Amino acid sequence: MLSAIHETFGDPSKVLKMEERPLPEPGPGEIRIRTGLAAIHNHDLLTVAGTYGYKPPLPAIGGSEAMGVVDALGEGVSEFQVGQRVAASGRGTWAQFYIAKAAGAVPLPNAIADETAAQLIAMPMSAMFLLDFVNAHPGSWLVQNAATGAVAKVLAKVAQKRGVNVVNLVRRDEAVAELEALGIKNAVSTAGENWKAQVADITGGAPIHAAIDGVGGPGAADLCAICGPGATIVSFGLMSGKPMEIPPAQLIFRDITVKGFWLAKLLPEAPKEKVAALMGELIGLIASGDVTLQVDGIYDLADIAKAAEAAGKGKREGKVLVRG
Questions:
Q1: Single pTM value for the model
Q2: In the chain, N or C terminus with fewer CB closer than 10 Å?
Q3: Residue spans with biased composition (Basic and acidic residues) (predicted)?
Q4: Which residues are within 8 A (CB) of 310 and not within 5 positions of it... i.e. 6 or more apart?
Q5: Residue 197 burial by CB count (10 A; 0-12/13-18/19+): exposed, middle or buried?
Q6: What are the structural domains of the chain?
Q7: Cβ-based burial of 101 (10 A; exposed 0-12, middle 13-18, buried ≥19)
């Protein structure tokens, strides 16, 4: 099967190449999926670069999430049928076929398009779990930076449906209008001098009990400054490439707590009932149009280097996908 592999860690646009690999066989509890569309996530690019929390043995096929059609069943799998359309996480999804655990695969209703299904799990489920992680409840206030990101946009829309208030920080003035066009409220550009006063006007002085930091660097200190005493700051990403900068006074005198969030660790430990309920809620919101998963571009698998370069750009309308 045609596969996008890397034999070394490095710039994905340079180290990824196409190669024929043996067709994988599903083990017990697994399914083989003929890939339709696969997502290129930031963590996929970091994995290829060798800077993520997981390093695959080399040579490795890239990718971690896709949708497609069940092609073969492993021993003990009875909940799926060959030919069934599914979305599933798995190692090596940038290939014509990949292996996934049947327990984690999601059967797809006709209302979910392929372009949406290819990015249904990692980013949207991160948003769903983040809301629980910070104990968001109706009427409470949260703040998140990097609000134009895939996770942030889903989190904002789901929160609005649940009655949770979210301040959405962006770094460009024009991004405020971009979020408003998607129906996302309370967007504030930090490019202006008085953005913290804008946040206070939006919340009406109500305390912000949690912040989600996808940027790192000095942005973490800004989040602390606008949160209430005893707030939790959740580290979710490092778009700036710099460590979080938090003044000790915030931790000592304002009782700010800092936590890390990684869905890859939380998802396998979560009760199946919880995962199923959150996925059901998510699919319902997508089917109704309340949540939209945007696509920036679709590339052929043979053009994986160009696709990786496009996915690595800072400003995109949505996710970059590759055809299996």
A1: 0.92
A2: N
A3: 14-23
A4: 296, 297, 299, 316, 320
A5: exposed
A6: 2-120+294-323 (3.90.180.10), 123-264 (3.40.50.720)
A7: middle
